[in-house]
Amino acid sequence: MTDHAVSPDAVLDTLSQELPPDLRNHVVIVGSLAAAYHFRVEIRGPIRTKDADLAIRPAGAIDKCEHIAQRLLTDGWRRTKDCVPRSTANHPELRAIRLNPPEHENYYAELLGLPSKGQTESKLWEPCRLDDGWYGIPCFRYLGLADHHRQKSEAGLAYASPAMMALANLLSHPTVGDEVMLAPIGGRTIRRAAKDLGRVLALSFLAGREVVETWPSLWVAALRAEFSDDCSELARRSGDGLRALLQAPDALEEARHAVDIGLLNGRGITVEQLEATGARFIADAVEPLSKLFKYEHRTR
Amino acid sequence: MKLQPVNTAATFTHVEPEFSAASMERTLLARLAADLGTPSWQEARDRGYDLQSADGRLVIEAKFGLKGARDLRSAMLQLAQTVSATPRIERALLVAALPKMGVARATEEWAQLERLFRPNLMKRLGIVAVTRDGELVQPSDATGRRVAYAARPILGGLREQPRALGHHAPTPKFFAVWSALLDAWLFREGSLRIGQIMKRAGCSHPTVTAALSRLDERREVERRTSRSAELRAFPGASFAEATSLADGLRKPIAFVDGTGKPPDAEGLLRRLARMRPPGVAVGGVAAARKYDRNFDLVGLPRLDVTAPRGQREWVHVLDPALRAARKDERAAVLVVSEPLTPMQRESTSRELPLVGPSETLLDLQDLRLGEQAMSLVTALRERKR
Q1: Given CB atoms, is A276 within the 8 Å cutoff of chain B?
Q2: Residue B42 belongs to what domain range?
């Protein structure tokens, strides 16, 4: 399925109606749909996306993922074409669980896992057994942050706050790296870090300074809860990847392209404007976060 | 003959150097007459000098157009002839501006005159002169010092601004004095002593007096005998001049939001209030609202501040996304100007200092809020003291 323009609030409304009521409390919408929904007033229009990323609560509950996937299939949800089973849990290329709603293909839901405490890998594929074989649940190390300070849609569905999505993306990319997105974005191959860190910039742009300034205190609480042992170190290096992006013209141009297709579509955003957004974000959120931990360290 | 009020009919923009010199001489004589006090003074041009005391024993000749040593010798010779012919004169003083001479050269010239004239005549002559680098007072007795004290403000102004006799653009210092006077007028403080103006404008005594003379030429200032001054009314001509010269005077730098977001001047003002960078004072619409609670404008179109020359580092701290506006780029969110005067209005510990209302008016003019600027003038003048 290719990206197409969808209305974020329409998708979230539909999703909340189509998800069985007893499953809703176990789901947090993350990713571009959550971001677009949160800023639906500022965006004022449809966005290009292809999926609704559903992070399954609680953290580490793969059995809950299995239960939800099985329940959806029983209710008539259908696997996408690339959602195919493997014969063993050890298969090197387990496929993610991607399901279309029973009666249309306006979007598909992809199941993600919140990481277990102590996960050190940036991304871990947890095997998940359904009726027809084995699938994978991708667990991102920092996605647990999305479970903090959750927001609720008008229809009552939980979605990740922009603050936490921004922090998760910041921590996920301490460098720009070479990993590229499997699917082109707007016809161009984009580095994953450029796309995710570009989204951080888009989130901060849409949130505005007054709101962004409140993020560091939210981040402190979430980092302590999720990473009690190394929260200070994570805070210290939280801006490394973003700073690297701002210093890499090619990657920054990729980030510009990604946000121009995505959350900042229609604004004619330039690289220069993205640089300025980054400089402001670092001053308003990244540096204060680091200082909060430094201050705490000194007063201990 | 009673001394007449100084004729300041010359218009500001059509000043001929000779006429201006004569006008300055009259200003000086009026000042001397006022400052020297009793005995009362009279004009005595028909007798070969400018002023004489009531008893005729002290006379003063003012010369502003002296170009060099030859003119100085000529003026002294003329005065010596008059003194020689008038036994009643005990002291004849030449009060002169010598902008093209150094004090050493002037002293040397005076020494040559001492050798030229008989001692009995020489002891009845004196000079109070301001050169380009100093002052010559001979003899430096009580009378000489008294006249020098009275003449210094005007003569000194000529030394500091040797082109003051001709037509030239006003200096930033002039507008510092103007700003101090206008602020005082808007707050209905009454006349300011020269010392107060010096302090508020951050200018020397000669500069203040030169500026006052300039304002005097266009009848915008009322000078008191107590060495104080006050604007007569709102100085429309010099305000128009300040507005037209504002870019050169205040050297404003406009900053735009580099992210491309719409300007958020209110947000920037809140941040500035938290940050309180040293030397930075708020002007423009934000200051106008403080001066007049009923100031008629919704929203804050941009943030106007003043900051001392060279102090711009705080802008990057205030918002790293700000960048200097390109030529013809609009939608500035912040404009930083150099202050005309060192004065800032005191504020509470939680509030930012304000620039004076005169600079606030210039900000409003720059924002094309002329109507609101004039309303602010009215509001300030009608405010109870």
Answers
A1: yes
A2: 17-165
